[in-house]
Amino acid sequence: MRLLGTLFLAATAAAPAQNVLAQHNDIARTGANLHEIVLTFSNVKTNFGSLFSPSVDGQIYAQPLVVNGVEIPGKRVHNVVYVATMKNNVYAFDADHPDEDCPLWKRNLGKPVPYKMIPLNWGSIVGQYNIKPFMGITSTPVIDPDAGRIWVVAKTLAGDDDIRYYLYALDIKTGAVLATSQPIQSEVGSDKIEARNVLQRPGLLRANGMVYLAFGSEFDGGIYHGWLVAFDEQTSEQEYVFCSTPGDLVGEGGIWQAGNGPAADADGNIHVMTGNGAYDPDKQRYGSSFIKLSPQLKVLDWFTPSNYVKMNVEHLDLGSAGPLLIPDSDQIVGGGKQGIFYLLSRGSMGHLQPNHSVAPALQQFQVSNRFSLKG
Description:
Elements: H1 6-13, H2 41-47, E1 65-71, E2 77-84, E3 89-94, E4 105-108, E5 113-114, H3 123-126, E6 134-135, E7 142-144, E8 149-157, E9 163-171, E10 177-180, E11 187-188, E12 191-192, E13 198-199, E14 205-207, E15 210-217, E16 224-225, E17 227-232, E18 238-243, E19 251-252, E20 263-264, E21 270-273, E22 279-280, E23 285-286, E24 290-293, E25 299-304, H4 308-313, E26 324-325, E27 331-335, E28 340-345, E29 351-352, E30 363-366
Parallel strand pairs: 16-19, 25-29
Antiparallel strand pairs: 1-2, 2-3, 3-4, 5-6, 7-8, 8-9, 9-10, 11-12, 13-15, 14-15, 15-17, 17-18, 20-21, 21-24, 22-23, 24-25, 26-27, 27-28, 28-30
């Protein structure tokens, strides 16, 4: 499998002052690079292009990350690109001199899960699995350059039929495993994370001294829920958990966001968007919603479109893209399979849309064609 994202490598390796430590660059998930000092219209036009394309073992779903000035033991200081694959391999490559010590290091985090071990439901509509042949590291890791750690979540086959998720902390210099969580089996009431049925797709989030992991479904197979779990970054112990549709027999309400990570604001509050699922705030169920949570994952506010029932029936997941926090404002924007963008105030999100006792969406507008199962 060739390394994907060569334009990403070309753009960042030329500017060693800029680290890329998380999915979409920052915890607001803006994707912005506000510190570019090397690339100009002139040199991009004449010199911009692919730098290198090394081979890796497994598909790449995670965004590559970059840390500059990493002192690799016995191999001097390097600007390093970190790549994770679906066969549970993590690689460190020199961003400027790929032919030297390629890779700088490689770490395997366990046997990946063959795709046919996962229950198939929604995928049967189109007659096939949409991820294959393996499930492994699907989400974008997150890096703390000061602590020299990269956190990675791997889905592993621990036995013949024993599927587990683990959170690992690796040394960015050597790839050594510094810490490993217990198997992730969070519970809310009678509901429990079933590793076989859920997919840890959204990028990881570092905020409030925690590493936050979000889960949606794996092919909509079996009973699943949306989950958000917080681990102490010092101890790797689970501290807080949120379930989007607790106690609902159908479940759903997955947090998948097409790989986009949960966002965090300046107060440390966490923002996610959920897919199809039950909506009943009296029972703490928030399918098809924007949700604002405290650092301890208690619901503070939410917004749910008025047509959520139709969205659920027609598989028009709201949370198919993920939230973006607009800088220097209290506003959040996000959209889903309806092709509609919603602009909301984080200070008063609106709850169920027809409830005008609180502020409705500041704006909503059609930006693309709606999703259709018929193509």
